[in-house]
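Q: Here's a chain of 323 amino acids. Please give me its 3D structure as C-alpha cells.
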Amino acid sequence: MSDGTIVAEETASTGELPEEATASPAEPPAANSATPDNAGGAASDGKPSAPASKAGRNLPAALGVGFGLGLSLIAILLWAPKVLVGVIAVAVAVATWEVTKRLREADVLVPRIPLLIGGQAVVWLAWPVGPQGVLGAFGATALTLMVWRLFDHGLTATPRNYLRDTAISVFTLTWIPLLASFAVLMLSEDQGNLRVLSFMILVVCSDVGGYVAGVLFGKHPMVPHISPKKSWEGFGGSLVFCVIGGLLTVTLLLQANSMIGVLLGVGLVLVATSGDLIESQVKRELGIKDMGTLLPGHGGIMDRLDSMLPSAFVAWLVLTALL
C-alpha cells in the first residue's frame, strides 16, 4: 500500500491529516509509549481504552454529544428562539472561564471578573439595544480591563507584563463575547431564528464536508506549522458541502436568492476554517490539546465554538446586507 493511501485512510476530523503523516519517519517511538491494538482495545496497563476516532477522540461520545446539542438548539430555535440568548450567554461565560483558566496556567494574568461581567453585558445588550449596545458594552469592558490590570496588584506595585496581559484580555473579549453577540443580533432580525439556524447548518456542513473529504482523499497538509493534520482535500470538501448547504438553506429556509447562499457558503467555510486554525495556534502556544473537558469527545465549550464565533459575524454581515 502506498504512503498516499495510508495518509488518505488515516485522515481525521475536518480534513485533518494523521500525526503519523507529518512526523519525521526517522523518529522512533518512545520506549515507554502505549500502543493500542487495531480495534482500539487495551492499552499497556491492560485496561480497555474508550473507542476513539482516528483523530484520537472518543467517537461514540463525540457523536452523542454533537447530536444532542444540535437537536436541542434546533428545538430552541423553532419553538422558543428567545431562550437562545440565555444559551449563548451561558456558553460565552463557560468558554471565557475555560480560556482565562488556561491563560492563567501559562502565567498570563487576564482579569477574569471584568471579562466575565463585561462579556455578559456585550451579549445581553445585543437583544434589546442592538449594535449600539454591543459597541458600548465592548468599549466599556475594554477600558475596564486596561485599568483593572494596571492596578490589580495595588497602587504601590509595579505592573508586570502589563502590555501583553492587557492585549490578550482585549483579544479574549473580542474572540468570545463580541463575536458571539452577532448571533444574538441576527436572532433579533426578521426571520432571526431561521437565519441563526442557517448559519449553524452551514458550519456543520463545513465540518462534515471536511471530515469526509479528508478521510477519503486527504494527502496534502494545509498549514503544517499551525495544524499539521489539516489537508487541502478536506478544505475542498468543506467548500463543496458549505456551498451546497448555503444554496439549500437560503433558498428553502429564508426564501431568498440562491446566489446569496453561494456567497454565504464560501464566506463561512473560509472563516470557519480560520476560526479553527486560530484556536489551534492558541492551544499550540499554550501547550494544550483542549481548552476544557466539559463535553466528552469534544473537549471544552470553546473547542466547539472556535468555528462558530467568526461564522456568526460573517453570517450576520452577509444576511443583514443582502436580505
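Q: Can you summarize the key feature?
A: Strands lie at 221-223, 227-231.
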